[in-house]
Amino acid sequence: MIDKDRLLACFLELVRIDSLTFNEKKLVDHLADKLTAIGWQVKIDGAGAKIGGDTGNLIAHRPGNKAKPAIFFSCHLDTVEPGVGIEPVVVDGVVSAKGDTVLGADDKAGIAAVMEMAQVIVADPGEVGPIDIVFTVGEEKGLLGAKNLDWRMVTGRCGFVLDAAGMVGDITIVAPWQNTVNAVFFGKASHAGVSPETGVSAIQAAARAIETMPLGRRDRETTANIGIIQGGRAPNIIPDKAEIKGEARSLKISKLNRQTDRMAQAANRAAKAFGATVEVDIAREYDGFKLSLKDEVVVWAGRALESIGVKPAYAATGGGSDTNVFNSQSVSTVNLGVGYMDPHTTSESISVDQLTLAARLAVAIARVAGS
Ligand SMILES: [Zn+2]
Question: Domain total for the chain?
Fold first, then answer.
């Protein structure tokens, strides 16, 4: 049985522990102690050293009925800024942050739900199979923990990520591919007042490139954005360098590649028009995925939701998560709504009801998987 008070206390405790990306060790130590105390086998992998963080991913294991499939639950440990000194307040059954910080329900609501499951399963194991808990580092800075996860430590070969914005009931089965697009324009510096004729403005070239790039929502499946522009030295110097950084996403990989090719072409044309040069770098940030309604993880998540009286809503997302990485590594995984609202803002919140429902869902999945 879920203990609502224990769950809320656990969540409030978690959000008070600072865990900005690359600084998740304090939180990992806290969770490792709690899990070890109730009999889970805890390991920390080597991802921290590879990505420049102070700890690796936490992997906890509990052996169960081997006749049942081994599954894992996953959430990420890190939170975005401003996320230091978070003080949660509960008003009318809704938890939010008191000061000018995020709440960190993304993804500590998921962690709290999984921690409650971990305790419920120990108290009343029933017929559950082997279960892993995978808490990842560095999700918010490019899914880095998931990308460097040591799979040798993980028994489960299909998984449930609790990290989707949206209500409990949402099952993300479609997510986009994403490319990053960076372009560095090189012009020629010159005195802006004395000899502007001999200069080549890298900023003008970059501006033309952005203006002529297809950006925003391109179609139902494809989006593109330039989010950063930097360059120049002083008002009286023709700028010899300017850099733009952006991204594109699509539910179809062919459309994504076409989109980022067009962005590169716009950059090249603009550089040429101003006599500048440009280096364009396009890199795959993560792969997308599309699961079928018949996939086991999708079926089990749906059944678990129905068992707690929630109607499953199968959804496509425009965002990326660790789920993308797991699926790209042939580990079938769904992302589940946890009920937090306005993540990555200082108005982030979650209702105690949704938090409770998320924990009930995690327990239900542990019981339903494989049956
Ligand atoms: Zn998240």
Answer: 2
Residue 255 and residue 251: Cα distance in Å, rounded?
8
Look up residue 144 and give its two tokens.
Answer: 């880095």
Instruction: Provide the CA 41 distance to its chain's centre, in angstroms.
Output: 25
Residue 139 is among the residues annotated as catalytic for this protein: yes
Domain that holds residue 189: 177-286
| Structure tokens, 132 | 């892993």
| 276 and 297, same domain (yes or no) | no
* C-alpha separations of 52 from 48, 78, 135, 138, 151 in Å: 6, 14, 17, 9, 19
Same structural domain, 293 and 278 = no
Mean pLDDT calculated for residue range 112-132 = 96
Which CATH number covers residue 42?
A: 3.40.630.10
Q: Give CA–CA dist 173/240, Å, rounded.
A: 46
For residue 15, how far is its CA from the centre of ligand 1 (angstroms)?
A: 14
Q: Which residue out of 106, 107, 132, 139 is catalytically annotated?
A: 139
Same-domain check for residues 33 and 129: yes
> Each residue of 11-45: pLDDT tens digit?
999 999 999 999 999 999 999 999 999 999 999 99
Task: Give the Å distance between the CA of 313 and the centre of ligand 1.
Answer: 19
